[in-house]
Amino acid sequence: MRRFLPLPRLDRLPTAPQPVEGVFRYHGEVVPVLRLGVLLDLAAGGGQTGLYAPLILITWQGRPTALLVDQVHGDVVLEAEDRVASDPSLSFNGCAAGAFPDRVTGRPGTVTLLDPDRLLSEAEGRLLDAFRAAEEQRLARWEGTA
pTM for the full model? Predict the structure, then answer.
């Protein structure tokens, strides 16, 4: 995780794959915004983005990517001894890298630790790269740099 961001104005494109909410520019780079709930097949909100929906800016395959989430309760420094291993075969593409005790919300149980590089399959990754490249070209035409 690189940082939390408030939801910026997103460019929404009709050709975007379903998990892609839109894109925005961050330090000159096109950043696709992926709905984490859709990626994990948890989306029950009907696709409506809340006014204060936060983004988690991550690095995925060396490029900035943002995950749109319903809410962020906080962040913690995770000590190695606090991490509980998980069985990668029990999650999509082994994206659940472990778990740790929930010390932020005060609720009993654990929080799942996700590996950003495993959130997408190889095929989905190639599609996202192609979408990002197409969007960079489209924006360059509008800006007169292509």
Answer: 0.78
67 versus 103: the higher-pLDDT residue is: 67
Torsion of Cα atoms, 41 then 43 then 46 then 52, to 10°: -150
> How many other β-carbons are positioned within 10 Å of the β-carbon of residue 30?
21
What's the pLDDT score for residue 34?
92
| C-alpha to C-alpha distance for 93 and 96, rounded to whole angstroms | 8
Nearest-5° angle of CA 89, CA 86, CA 37?
Answer: 75
Q: Which of 51, 58, 15 is nearest to 34 (CA)?
A: 58
Residues 93-131 have pLDDT tens digits of 778 888 888 888 878 888 888 888 888 888 888 888 888
CA-nearest of 57, 94, 93, 82 to 72 is 57
Q: Please name the helix (run of DSSP H) or strand (run of DSSP E) that holds residue 90, with its range, or none.
A: none
Token digits of residue 75: 């962040």
